[in-house]
Amino acid sequence: MTLTLRATTELVAEAWLKGAVGDIVATKLPRDNTTWAASGFVTVGTTGGNTGLYVPLRSPALTVTCWAVAPSSNRPPWNKANVLAETIVAATFDHANTPRLLTLPAGYPHARVLTAYPAYEPRRIPDDPGSYARYDLGLVLNWVEVS
What's the pTM? Predict the structure, then answer.
């Protein structure tokens, strides 16, 4: 039996976010912060949501975390992390670019994001022991797989 690769919420979320902020998105923060200190970084994970009962529509709730670091300073660059978060919120209002067809990694089918909207406002997460600036925001993507 051969298994077919299917679009997943994490792949769709990464692809959609890359369209908003560039190639600085993954499900895990890179260990070497010097590789992303200039741009900041965005991580994403599924925190809830649901699927359609009669149609193949996915509506995941995601936690998007925007990170920034200043390796030569103990002061977190809050503004850089906040700019990333606000850029993502602004992308949800880009109605000319919604719905949007996304290309996923090789072997996976395309996905179409029908709507995207913030589930909650970006919020500062203080007291990171590594002096990272961190903003979290909630995001809902309504998407379908396209064969």
Answer: 0.95
DSSP three-state, residue 27: coil
Q: Is 98 a member of any domain?
A: yes
d(CA 44, CA 28): 8
Query: Is residue 111 within 8 Å of 15, Cβ to Cβ?
Result: yes
* Residue 2 in domain: no
Give residue for tokens 């900041």: 40
How far does CA 91 lie from the centroid of its chain? 11
Kindly report, residue by residue over 105-126, the tens digit of the pLDDT.
Answer: 999 999 999 999 999 999 999 9
* Nearest-angstrom CA–CA distance, 12 and 112: 9
- How confident is the model at residue 147, as a pLDDT? 84
Residue 3 in any domain: the answer is no
What residues make up the domain containing 132?
9-146
In DSSP notation, 104-130 reads -STTSPEEEEEEEEEEEEEEE----TT
